[in-house]
Amino acid sequence: MVGELSIIFPAFNEEANIRRTVETIRGVLPKIATRWEIIVVDDGSSDPTALICDDLKAQYPEVEVIRQEQNRGYGAALKSGIMSAKYDLIFFSDSDGQFDFWDLEQLICWSEDYDTVAGYRAKRHDPLYRHVNALGWNVIVRLVLGIKIRDAGHITPVTKMNSTRPRPMPTWSSFNVGAITCLHRPIP
Q1: Among 31, 41, 48, 102, which residue's CB has the most CB atoms within a 10 Å radius?
Q2: Distance from first CA to last CA of the chain, Å, rounded?
Q3: Beta-carbon neighbour count of residue 135 at 10 Å?
Q4: Which has the closest alpha carbon to 20: 40, 34, 5, 1?
Q5: What confidence tens digit (pLDDT) does each residue in 104-113 have?
Q6: CATH 1.10.10.10 for the 2-182 domain, yes or no
Q7: CA-CA distance, 136 to 184, in Å (whole number)?
Q8: d(Cα 188, Cα 180) in Å, to the nearest integer?
């Protein structure tokens, strides 16, 4: 069990998934952390995602909502979440429910030996075109950036951050990274 953990969910038009995602991780967190926060970054959604996030915040005191008035992209939403995180151990994932949150315990255990532990999809439940797209991204990342990574399109890491501000985004070359397989669920 870990002491403190910040969870970040960038969300864009996740009306169908965000409530289930937050409520699912709330069921897992008491078994793996003593204190936590769940930060949902609504990235300018045009559907009712923002309203659902506000309802979750009103219902659960550990939920924080950051609203970006216009869509700025996944990276900007992620950065907003990281910059507002209270705790030094951070986990982030897509808001669509593809990651099995019971794998989070395994990621946290491995984080004792690594600065970042990335979960990758071992057995993908996606249509063929997504497999081909993922293969292309993996090849590009390896050729252009020189990073040997198994699943460039879906990384669910646990990252240690220094508690001092500002919090720069981690770079692969500056610290020790581990990778483990995680269960992949089809997009609901």
Answers
A1: 41
A2: 29
A3: 12
A4: 40
A5: 888 888 788 7
A6: no
A7: 19
A8: 23
